[in-house]
Amino acid sequence: MMNRIFGALIVVSIVCAIMTGRLEDVSNAILSGATEAIQLVFSLFGMMCFWTGMMKIADKGGATTLLAKFLSPAIGYLFPDYKKSGRAIKTICMNLVANFLGLGNAATPIGITAMKEMQREKQLKGVADNSMVMFVVFNTASVQLIPTSMAVLRKAHGSVSPFDVMPAVWISSIAALAVGITVAKILEKRKKSLG
Amino acid sequence: MDSIGSLVLPSVVFLIIIFGFTKKVRLFDTFIEGAKDGIKSTLLIIPPLVGLIVSINMIKSSGALDMFTSALAPLANMMGIPDKTIPLVLLRPISGSGSMAIINNLFSQFGPDSFVGKVASTMMGSTETTFYAIAVYYGSINIKNTRHTVPAALCADLTGFLISVLSVKLLFFG
């Protein structure tokens, strides 16, 4: 899927650029895009190390075990492929909480750690399993208690009540997540042979 | 409102450290051990990110977005999505900074409290940069076959956009 999307993005952009006479812009975009990617990775580097370090402490100290117990019923349904007391599940729980609290900077490194733990537990090579897909779908939906960054931007533009969209955001993101989970559950049955 | 966000991060870090302390974890040694894993993970996400960001930059600069916007306008109108938010709908799943730029434009043009402003805020807040997450998460462990991830995630995004329009209509302009 990602192969086709990558190919399509590039082909469409070059064809469009020829039609709109923007080839020069596209050529600049290629150069700046590569640099931008590295800048982004560097901006993530510190947080990545910080949170993988923190996660190790949380893991050894038992904070993640407690959290996993607390979330256990939902987790069992969503990620049935992994041992309930395993490190993969504990890390998944930490990631979900970080997302919910709006700690985007923490959620990504913890999420990557969770992917690694899942891979380690099941010895996966190259192909995602159902739980892994579910986990990534969770991370592409954005269920957040307080959409802080949005509110900050709204306020900066002179909104009288920057937080008033909160209920709308909750409704929309919960609906989106529900559909994401449902579609994932339906498609996983169809493509069971792959998993 | 900044204070809420700046309260959460220290609290989480505090809790983790307190837990570790009471269980007599060797805090700094353990931290270093874990942080080392972060180096490898970061390096592994470079290739997928370079590929994704270059191709997205190409799309943004090619004028394709305008073409798709006008092509999709009738369909979007049918579903009740305002014209002005179509570029946001198209760009949101692939580029966080790109959609932020569009939001900025919409806010200065229509104001954050207008219908378009509120719909855009809700769309932005209720969805994520889907392809970034997919590239980073799978790239970090070299998973090439993502199976049904993309269709499921995109269905979620589309739902988020549609419900954003509906809920803003009902809650504020109903």
Give structural notes.
- The complex is a heterodimer of chains A (195) and B (174).
- Chain A has helices at 2-20, 23-61, 63-78, 87-100, 104-122, 130-140, 148-156, 166-190.
- By secondary structure, chain A is an all-alpha fold.
- Chain A has a domain at 48-140.
- The two termini of chain A are 16 Å apart.
- The model of chain A has no long low-confidence stretch (mean pLDDT 90).
- By secondary structure, chain B is mainly alpha-helical.
- Chain B folds into two domains: 1-36, no CATH class; 45-172, no CATH class.
- Chain B contains nine helices and no strands.
- In chain B, helix 3 (46-61) runs antiparallel to helix 8 (130-139), helix 6 (96-110) packs antiparallel against helix 7 (115-126) and helix 7 runs antiparallel to helix 9.
- Chain B starts with a helix and ends with a helix.
- The chains are: A mainly alpha (195), B mainly alpha (174).
- The interface between A and B is large, with 110 and 101 residues.
- Strand percent estimate of chain B: under 5%
- Secondary structure class of chain A reads mainly alpha
Q: How would you sum up the global shape of chain A? A: globular
- Report the uncertain regions of chain A: none
Total of DSSP H or I helical runs spanning 4+ residues of chain B: 9
Oligomer: heterodimer
Name the poorly predicted regions of chain B.
none
Please provide the ordered H/E string of secondary-structure elements of chain B: HHHHHHHHH
Beta percentage of chain A is: under 5%
Give a short account of the largest sheet of chain B.
Answer: none
Number of helices of chain A: 8
Mean pLDDT of chain B: 92
Question: Main attributes?
Answer:
heterodimer; A: 195 residues; mainly alpha; 78% helix; 0% strand; B: 174 residues; 2 domains; 9 helices; globular
Summarize the structure.
With 195 residues, chain A is mainly α. Chain A contains 8 helices and no strands. The two termini of chain A are 16 Å apart.
